[in-house]
Design goal:
This protein has 339 residues and is of the alpha+beta class. Helix content is 27%, strand content 28%. It is elongated, with a radius of gyration of 28 Å. It starts with a strand and ends in a 25-residue tail after the last helix.
Length: 339
């Protein structure tokens, strides 16, 4: 910071607000901290009684907060984003499409290790909608050493924030349960699944009902796998009753069972498996009953074509407890965000 005669300050950056007071009429900010002084500003500043001001010299060695924010945007922003105009040194990252938010946490923390630099984000793996704010970046002081920004550019060599778009997938549903098959009760699970997939632009193309008979469940799952469906979803019979045959039927059809059981409530009896690239899900009854459950945590990742691994499910343990809020605002809450 340097004290300068106003007449010599063109092109330099004001380090403090300049207040204008006209008694009985105006009291307000005439110039804002961070403003780059122009030729036209000189008479105005002089009329406000400012013969000298504190400035940063706008030279190559220092970068102004607005320019620094642009540099940080370039360093951190990957696919699927648009940006607000830089304002008061800050840029917000906005989702340019519906998709899965990906945050490279290692790089995020590395970037924030630099004093004076801030990049803050919404959670990794959150489903986001076009137009959502997903991150914000700025430097803390008004200016930063240019060589520091150059060093950041060199050391942060992976994008930090990006969005993977949701794919439109086709879904086959296998509804198990003799009570539903024989019409003793009306199917309430199918409509819930239909709606959840619709929320992400995917579509249930087929639903079959089968009784609690393992061979029939296996047949129905295999039919689903042979169809054009990308995902086969099984409901009913996921827990421990003698009639709960769905997990063993899925095992028989799958080339790989990722995990049966998830550290999430509601949703602990989830099963995730694959047959080649096709996904097989066994959904516990709570998915039908509760507004949000483990299904809402794995579905966005599946629709973004991420392969779910065992550790992905295990990591849900931290933050996998739904707080059953009076008004559900998922995904803008802690559920599934602890990883
Ligand atoms: N001893 C244990 N019991 C239970 C456990 C456990 O760990 N140990 N887990 C509980 C949890 S958590 C859940 S969730 C449920 C899982 O239940 P299932 O997925 O096996 O569901 P069902 O037993 O087949 O059905 C439960 C209930 O829902 C009705 N249902 C099922 N499908 C439909 C449908 N398509 N439409 C309408 N209603 C349906 C069914 O008739 C039952 O009333 O297990 C706990 N138990
Ligand atoms: O799968 Mo139950 O899954 O936690 O209510």
């Amino acid at each position: 910071m340097e004290r300068k005669p106003v007449r010599e300050a063109v092109g330099m950056i004001l380090c403090h607000d300049v207040t204008q007071i006209i008694p009985g009429e105006v009291k307000g900010r005439a110039f804002k901290k961070g403003h780059t002084i122009t030729q036209e500003d000189i008479p105005v500043l002089l009329s406000l009684g400012k013969d000298n001001i504190y400035v940063w010299e706008n030279d190559e060695t220092m970068t102004h907060e607005n320019d620094a924010a642009e540099v940080l945007r370039e360093i951190a922003a990957g696919e699927g984003l648009e940006f607000t105009e830089v304002r008061e040194g800050k840029i917000n990252f906005i989702a340019s499409e519906d998709g899965l938010l990906k945050i490279n946490k290692e790089m995020l923390f590395k970037l924030n290790c630099y004093d004076d630099i801030v990049l803050t984000t919404f959670h990794n793996n959150a489903p986001v909608k076009k137009g959502d704010i997903v991150a914000g970046t700025r430097i803390v002081p008004l200016v930063i050493k240019t060589e520091k920004l150059d060093e950041v550019r060199k050391n942060i060599n992976d994008k930090i924030v990006s969005i993977k778009p949701f794919n439109k997938m086709k879904v086959a549903v296998v509804t198990t349960g003799s009570e539903v098959f024989h019409g003793r009760i009306k199917d309430a699970f199918g409509p819930v699944i239909r709606e959840k997939f619709q929320e992400y632009g995917s579509e249930v193309i087929n639903q079959v009902k089968v009784p609690d008979d393992e061979e029939k469940i296996v047949q129905a799952v295999n039919d689903g796998l042979k169809s054009e469906a990308d995902i086969v979803v099984c409901t009913g019979g996921m827990s421990v009753d003698p009639d709960d045959l769905t997990p063993s039927a899925i095992r028989e059809c799958a080339s790989e069972v990722i995990k049966y059981g998830a550290p999430v409530l509601p949703g602990s009896m989830l099963l995730v498996a694959y047959s080649g690239k096709k996904v097989i899900l066994g959904l516990p009854g709570c998915v039908m009953y509760f507004k949000r459950s483990v299904f809402d945590l794995v579905l966005p990742r599946i629709l973004a074509r991420e392969k779910i691994e065992k550790m992905d499910i295990i990591k849900l343990a931290h933050g996998g407890l739904c707080m059953r809020c009076d008004v559900c605002v998922y995904p803008k809450c802690s559920f599934g965000k602890g990883e």
